[in-house]
Amino acid sequence: MSTTEAMTTSEGQEAAVLLERTRETVNPALRRTVESLPGSMRRVALYHFGWEHEDSTPAAGSTGKAIRPALVLAAAQALRGDGAAGGGLAGGGLAGGGLAGGGVAGEGVAGGVVRAAVAVELAHNFTLLHDDVIDKDVRRRGRPTAWTVFGTPDAIITGDAMMALALRLLAEDPHPASAAASARLAACIVELCAGQQADCAFEQRPSVSLDECLTMATAKTGALLGCACALGALYAGAGPDEVDAMDAFGREAGLAFQLIDDLIGIWGDPGHTGKPAGADLLARKKSLPVVAALTSGTAAGEELAALYAGPMNGEDVGRAAAAVERAGGRDWAQAHAADRMGRAVQQLSRAVPDLGAAGGLLALAEFVTRRTK
What we know:
- Helices cover about 70% and strands about 0% of the residues.
- The chain is mainly alpha-helical.
């Protein structure tokens, strides 16, 4: 094994441990918060997170990778350097009382940062519930999406309630950073919605520039990852420059994340993604690799444009994927993801000059750009 491969394996293992510890710490608080929802919304949310089946019987749970809450905790640890996150999560002792009792997390800095992590995860799942409706996706995390089970109105309304819960968590938090965190999360969601609106508009337009697509992806995905890092910095007591640098780190890493996600949307294994192969192509989404191919000025790009001009079947999806690759869309996306991660590390060094203290953040960044599912 080469040195680079060994480093990648080590960082991958560190990220896996951090994500598991995040789930162990955040999920109990997240579930208590979700269970505070009224009747039918609670049922939809518990199903969406994988804690219950459609008939409300218990399920194993599939709450996702927990990347965003892990970024909150890892950012706080990087700036405090006192175990407020990361290794300190192993004991699972940060989660505390219920929502009605003044919070889903324990008192103090550690409890506050868990509350912020829960808020970010609720905001993320608000977007997932709405995205599944908008994109008409029928599978998420290996089973039917909430809107296909409970109907579009209930899925949308439950998503709205999750977003309200996220802001309520921060608004009720006695931590001195809570007001700034709540304002930043609210602004992030407005930006994220603008990115989603642009994404939808692109599907109706005959052409989209690569710059427009990058701006959309930064808003749609990078904004929330940046906000997660910024909230961790706020709860660590960081100053404005450090908070902004952490936000910039998350945004750049988020764009790299979206580039990889777009690649997976075309070439991912359905057994791992829980979605049909080439689902993004079948929906004729103008994802980053696709736009790179469409604007490449190549014969393969013209072939792809012709395929995108009309409805596609399964055979067309295979041809479209091959055209994206021949036009250079796949290589461009992989190279641009690496470039964005380089920029992310530069931003991180502004907040944490000794990058050795930011091992968790770097491991998570490596994870999102190396993942294949």
